[in-house]
Amino acid sequence: MSDHTPVFYETLLVGMIHTDTRGSCFTYDESWLSRTGSFQISLTMPLGRPAVEHHVIMPWLANLLPEGDAISTIARRSGIATGDILSLLMVVGRDTAGALSIGQPRSREGRHYMTIAGQDALERLIEDLPRRPLLSGDDGVSMSLPGAQEKLPVVLNDNDIALPLNGAPSTHIIKPNNRRLPGSVQNEALCMVLARRVGLDVADVTTGQAGKRSYLLVERYDRIQRGGVWRRLHQEDFCQALSLPPASKYQHNRTGILGPGLADLFRTVRTFMTARDTIRLLDAVIFNVLITNVDSHAKNYSIMLTGRARLSPLYDLMAGDAWSEVTQNLPQDIGGKNRGQYINHLHWRRMAEESGLSAGAVVRRVIQMATALPSMLDQAVD
User: Fold this and answer.
1) A single GO molecular function, which one (predicted)?
2) Is 27 exposed, middle or buried (0-12, 13-18, 19+ CB in 10 A)?
3) Half-sphere exposure of residue 379, counting CA atoms within 13 Å on the CB side?
C-alpha cells in the first residue's frame, strides 16, 4: 500500500511524495518540468533527477517544521507523533519557508486574510503562542516556520497586521520578546541594522509594541509583490541543501551526525553560486563572530532558488554575549576554535585554507570589518 502527498507552488502541482513500507521518495510532475519558470526545490533535487530518495527528501521536509517545544505541542494538539513529518506538514504546511505548500494548494476561494483587531488582540495572540505555536488548529490557519523560537507569520496590509488563511502567503514574521533573554528584540534589531550599515545584505526589520509585549517585525525576503498580489520566492537553508536533519544544524552536536562546518558551507557556495556569494558568506561569517552570534548555525544561512542560486539575505542576528547564561561556543569552528576570545589570525588563516579561500585576503577582511564596526555602532543605535 502506498500513500501520495502532493507538493504545490501556489495552485500548480510541483511533484508528489510517494510513501510505502520502504520509505518515501519524491518525483517532479511532468507538467512542472515542462513549465517555463519552474525551479528546483533543492540543490540536491535538480529538475532532471528522476526520483529523490528517502534519505534526501525526508531531512529536507523535516527542516520546514518548527523545533523543540513548538513541534511537540503541535504534534500533541493534532494527535500526531512528532516523528511523523508528512502528517505534521499536512497540518501546518500550506505556508512554509520558501515557495511550496505541502498537501494542499493555495485556495482561490474564501477569505485569504483575517485582520488582527488592534494591539490588544495581537498581544493575546502572542501570549497564546506557547500553547498554540503558529496558531495551529485555528480554522484556515496552516503555517510553518523552522526554529525553536516563538514566531508568528503575518501579513502587513497598509500598516494593518493580519493572519494569512487558506494557504495565502505571509509577508512578515513577528518575533516576540523572549522573557528568558531580556532585550532580545532590541538586541536583534540593533545587530540587523549594524549589519546593513557595514554593507551586508539583511532582511528589513522594525520593532513594535503590543501591550506589554515588544516584538521584532521581519519582512520576508522570500515574498514579493507583483501586480498587487503577494507571490512566493523559493529558498532552502543549508541543512536542507546538505541533506541534514535540523538537529544537526550545529557543527558539534550529539545526534551522531556531524553538522556542517564552514568548509561545507563554502564548498556548497563554490559549487552552485558565484564568487560574489563566496565573499558575501565570508563577510557574514566574520560579522557573526565579531558580534558573538552564537546561533549562526547552518539553518540560519539560506539559499534563494528562484532563478540562479544565490545566498539569501541574512536574518536571526543577535549578540549572544549580552546574556551570561547563553553559551559562548560558536556554531562552527574557526580553524579548530569555537570561542571568539581564543581566535586569532592563525585560526582565520587555517579556516581559509580548509575552505579553499585566500588566507591573506580573509585576515585582511577580518581586520577591515573589526575596525569598521565600532565606528558604525553609534549610527546603528540611532
Assistant:
1) protein serine/threonine kinase activity
2) middle
3) 11
Torsion sign (Cα): 149, 152, 158, 160: negative
Residues 6+ apart with CB under 8 A from 33: 47
- Domain ranges within the chain, ordered by starting residue: 3-102, 113-224, 230-381
Give the closest residue to 242 by CA, choosing from 223, 266, 221, 275.
266
Query: Which is higher by pLDDT, 10 or 218?
Result: 218
Write out the three cell numbers for 347.
Answer: 585560526
User: Tell me, what's the pLDDT at 220?
Assistant: 97
Q: Is the pLDDT of residue 356 over 60?
A: yes
What tens digit of pLDDT does each residue of 170-205 get? 999 999 999 999 999 999 999 999 999 999 999 999
Q: How many CB atoms lie within 10 A of CB 347?
A: 16
- pTM exceeds cut of 0.90: yes
Distance CA 33, CA 9 (A): 13
Q: What number does CATH give the domain 113-224?
A: 3.30.200.120
As annotated, the active-site residues are 295
What does the alpha-carbon distance between residue 8 and residue 26 come to, in Å, rounded to a whole number? 13
Q: How far is CA 305 from CA 169, 190, 234, 257, in A?
A: 17, 29, 5, 26
Q: In the predicted model, is pLDDT for residue 91 greater than 50? A: yes
